[in-house]
Each structure stands twice: as C-alpha cells, then as structure tokens.
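Changelog entry

Holo records now carry the ligand SMILES as an explicit input line rather than a separate metadata file. Below, a converted record for calcium ion, shown in the new format.
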Amino acid sequence: MRLCCLVLFGCSEFDLRGGDEPVPVTVDMTTPAVETEPTSEVPPPIVTTPPVETTPPATTPPPTTTPVETGCLCPSGFTALPDDDGCVKRTEVAPDFLGEGYPVCTVIPHIDYGMYGARYPGGLIVSDDYWGDDDFLPDGRLNETGVWACAADGVSSGFEPEGEWIGFAVCVDIDVGGDYLLGLGADNRMRLTVDGVTLLDHTDDNSENFKYWWLQAISLTSGPHVVEFEGFNAGGPAGLGAEISGPFASGSLIDDASMASQDYDGNLVWTAQESLGSTFALGETSGYQCPGGMALDLCAEAPLCYSEETAACQ
Ligand SMILES: [Ca+2]
Ligand SMILES: [Ca+2]
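Structure line, unchanged by the conversion:
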C-alpha cells in the first residue's frame, strides 16, 4: 500500500483497495438526480518496485490466487482474471536467494547514450532531445533514467559488476487490461521479459544497445504481472535504463506509428530511477534468481517464481 502511493502519480481511491473505510452516502431529495455519462477511462495501474528482502525466502510459497465467483467460466485448473477477461493457471516455485543485491545509483551520463534516438519494433526511429540525439550532449532516455550498481562511495554508479546480469522485477497489478509501452537501453547487453516470457534479448555487445532507446509494446490482461528488465556490463562504463508507460487502450498499439503517437512521457508509471535507494532484485551472484522461463514475483506474500498458462473464458 505504501509503495503504491509512492510510485503512482495521482493514486486514486480506486487504487487504494482495502485501505479506506466505507463512506456513508446521503441523498439530497430536493435535487433531481443528474445522470452522468459512462466514462471509458481505465483506472491507473498499480506499479511497484518491491523492496528486496535480505533474508532467504520461505521454501514453500503460499498460493497467490483464490477462486472467486465470476461470470467467466474457466477450464479445470484455471482461475478467472479479476475483470473476467480470461483465465490463468500458474506454476510456482521458490526462488534462489543469492545474497543482498547491489545498491542502485544513477548512471554516469555519456554522450553516446541514446545518440541515435528511439527505435520502435518495426524500425521507426525518432531522434530528439527527449529520446536522444547526436548533439554531443548527454540527454535522452538512458541518460535520464539509467542506473547501475553503486561504486564504493555509495553515491555514484561504477563499472561493477562486470560480466553479470542484474536487473529489476517490476510488479504491474491492474484492474482492467490495457496496452503498455516498455522502453529500455543498456551498456552493454539487455533483456526484457513479461511474466517470464522473453520480449527482447540482446546478448551481444553491439553499441546500438545503448545508442538507441528500444521500445516494445505489450497487451496486459487484468490482474498481476511482472516485467523484468536486466542489463549486463561487458566492461568499462555501465548502465541500464528502463521505463513503463501506459495504460493505453487495448489494441491501440498495433504498429510503430500508433506507438509513436502516444503520450509516452505523460503516461510513465515506472522508471528505473524509482529504484534509487533500493537494490537490484535480480542477479547471478546476488539478489534472487528464478528458473528459466519463470518470473520473479516479490509482491506476493513470500518471494516466488512463476510461469503461467492462459485460456479464454468458456
Ligand atoms: Ca540532445
Ligand atoms: Ca560497458
């Protein structure tokens, strides 16, 4: 609850489920009721970077879903999503806890970061001061939102770790499904998964990994999800930038032009900068590690790894 309010811009009562006392409703009978138009606005998502525990997780994670009465009938073993927009079946195991994660510090700015601009999945490139451009100034998204493990002074980021994947597991819990834009860039390698499914996997050391800001679009159903951003430094300067923007109307992000037409900056709900003062949740010698194809959920009652199958309502 606390993190929700720290992270959400304009956190509404709707988000604060379970936190408010019921408010008695009074009706002024002298004034005729005014009918209001239904709104198509969807409530903002709950996006959190959970604190990383420094103690090992319980070996048996508790179940995270409870059956509820619903208008959506699901196949055996599946549970209806909160908005009845589908069914899900999860497989859960306890993660490996490898030790306290690296503390997070702001990236050291670099004029090469983002110098080619934003790059959409279909190849559209947009270059300016916001996304990044080649004007010998350290601007653009990776310079603005990038982070890496703190140096020994604990204030600025350094070059370490080198040769290790580290990253974030961001919880996105939404009452209504919607589309989201994910942006990232890294010095040197990067990968992106949603609910354990790989969306982007750049395991070479091509300088384009940090010279572009890489955009991806996803459609999320209602309910909890985990977006994982990871970076890997092959040597020298290091940085990982990551952002989540949305929600946008379901089915609206169909091509580069439709993605580029959205108000990305005005709908940011999470950036890597929000992890300052915390630690990298994911690592290979620190933090948590899940089996391949599984996502790390630190928003459950106890840390767990999950994979999931989905099915349509019957
Ligand atoms: Ca510029
Ligand atoms: Ca590097």
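Spot-checked after migration. Confidence is low (pLDDT under 50) at residues 1-39. The radius of gyration is 21 Å.
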